[in-house]
Amino acid sequence: MSLPGPLPALRSQPKAIFFTDFDGTITLQDSNDFMTDNLGFGVEMRRKGNKDTLDGRRTFRETFQEMMDSVKTPFDVCVEKLLENVQLDPAFKEFQLWCKANNIPIVVLSGGMQPIIRALLSHLVGEAEVLDMQIVSNDVRPRPGKSINDEDGWDIKFHDDSEHGHDKSLEIRPYAALAERPIMFYAGDGVSDLSAAKETDLLFAKAGRDLVVYCEKEKIPFTVFHDFSDIQKVVADVVDGKISVQEAATGRN
Ligand SMILES: [Mg+2]
């Protein structure tokens, strides 16, 4: 569900906007990886696809489509298994409350599927809180002649025609183009974040994950985080003017 009107995250005239990936960033486990590794073609083939995308040999759209195609489990069963297995970053809930108190909208930009994100966020963060959050993502659709809850019944429905499936820069750029605008942050962990990595003022990349290596290779400024308490400290310091986004972009340090 997107909010009505142009540039929804500007409606409260915030000092900052926090764009973020969902899987593996807000959650500890990536739900698409979990489905692929446990219900689909397994971790080895998935890692190969991820590496091909990071190295620029294949698009995220191609490798992600293959991952999802390998999962034949009915959609409702997938959601059930994810609710049992996926955990929230231990500091996200507090960060979310802090953002709300400080008028910093959180915009979730995800390569995952909308119903899974909503189900997990409602379960982990709370239904009322999720209604406040703008979530832009891919979606799910039934395969011809089937229902999504049939065996081999669902397919991923991509957000746009880009090679990313969901080009996260599409949502960020209209804000970036404004003459006067809020400070923009992005947090992510992996291959689904490549389309967003260069678009904001400060990028948080999860320690030990693929996005760190990618940013170093592409010389994209970033700072690492272990959980959302690290992010909250830095966002607070930047918004309060204690440090600049350039000073905050310390890479792995
Ligand atoms: Mg992710």
Automatic annotation (TrEMBL):
InterPro entries registered for this protein in UniProt: HAD-like_hydrolase_phosphatase, HAD-like_sf, HAD_hydro_PyrdxlP_Pase-like, HAD_sf
Q: Which one of the record's GO molecular function terms can you name?
A: phosphatase activity
Does the keyword section mention Hydrolase? yes
Which UniProt keywords are given for this protein, alphabetically ordered?
A: Hydrolase
Q: What is this protein called?
A: Phosphoserine phosphatase
Organism of origin is Monosporascus ibericus
